[in-house]
Amino acid sequence: MKFIEIMKQNKPAIQELSNLATTILKEHYDPIIGARQNDYMIKKFQSVDALTKQFEQNYHYYFVCDEVDEKVGFVGYYPRENDLYLSKFYLKKNHRGKGIAKEMFEFIKNQAKQLDYSTIVLNVNKNNAVAIRAYEKLGMIKIDQEKIDIGNSYYMDDYVYQYLIK
């Protein structure tokens, strides 16, 4: 796997990231939360405008590329006071179950170590059984749950997972 950092000044790459996110998220989340809420969330969090603002808030995004340089997924994180927050961890459906998520998580752990963090935290939708299984397989533990109002009468109803770097 190769990880290609997306720079905030690279508008074509941000557009490509938004397109990739839309493809993955529509396929994965429409059945979980419904197309209307998913479309709202994609616009709110994965549109070019939203991504551009996230870069200004110290988000870091990377394309995940396979051995023939196809972009098969992406990761996004940002440093917080006490942990590295793993905001995005997405892989195209036809590339799941091949050990790629493990490589992606190793990459995130290395990023956390370089930034001198010993804890990684993420949120996952309570009904996202596929992701929950993957995160638990990677050694993450459920530490909390939260319901976040994201506007337009929509909520993110999530578990909070944590990974302690040894």
TrEMBL record:
Do you know which CDD domains this protein is assigned to? NAT_SF
Which Pfam families does the record match to this protein?
A: Acetyltransf_1
Q: Please tell me whether the keyword Acyltransferase is annotated for this protein.
A: yes
Keyword Ligase applies: no
| Regions crossing the membrane | none
Tell me the ranges covered by the N-acetyltransferase domain, including all copies.
15-161
Question: What keywords were assigned to this record?
Answer: Acyltransferase, Transferase
Protein name (database record): N-acetyltransferase domain-containing protein
Q: Which organism is it from?
A: Amphibacillus indicireducens
